Amino acid sequence: MPAEATKKTNVVQIKPTKNLESEKKWGKAVMKAGFCVVPSLLLRAQQRLGLSPTQLAIILQLADFWWEKERNPWPSKSALSDRLGIGSKQIQRNIAELETAGLVKRISRTSKQGGRLSNMYDLSGLVEKLNALEPEFTEVREESKQRNRQVKRRGGICAKPTTKK
């Protein structure tokens, strides 16, 4: 028997879990077509980030192209335009606004022959802003949980009566 066959390995085989919650909600075929991980805080903080619905949709599309932290997405403006059903100029204008807000950074790409390729999009500004907002959102969520627990207890929340002067 070869030595490699007798070696123990630390690799654990993980079998896909049956009946994933996402499959229960969306359907197996839909989930098999692919999915994108987006933090809920992005959706909850849309107004705080100053994102218009179109800008949020653009960020969601960019996130769908962003598979690895070190590898920024580079969809073309026409691909974004096709997906969102808006013109390339509107895509360009909104991305410029996202860049001005410090949420997205455009990085030019060129081919080996020197021709222009689609821009690469760095979303680290967005990530930083979400990380800065997170403590506030978490604090409010925890306060709400605490208040909810107090209401469920006997006697509820004892609030001091307010008097008008």
Explain the layout of strands and helices.
Elements (H helix, E strand, L loop, with lengths): L2 H4 L14 H6 L1 H5 L7 H5 L8 H13 L11 H8 L3 H13 L4 E6 L5 E7 L1 H29 L13
Antiparallel strand pairs: 1-2
Helix pairs in contact: 6-7
How is this structure best described in words?
This protein has 165 residues and is mostly helical. The protein has a single domain (33-149), classed as Winged helix-like DNA-binding domain superfamily/Winged helix DNA-binding domain (Arc Repressor Mutant, subunit A). Helix content is 50%, strand content 8%. The chain is built from 8 helices and 2 strands. Strands 1-2 form a two-stranded antiparallel ribbon. α6 (77-84) crosses α7 (88-100). The mean pLDDT is 89.
Descriptive labels:
165 residues; mainly alpha; Arc Repressor Mutant, subunit A; two-stranded antiparallel sheet; 8% strand
Short summary:
The chain is built from eight helices and two strands; from the N terminus they run H-H-H-H-H-H-H-E-E-H. The chain is mainly alpha-helical.
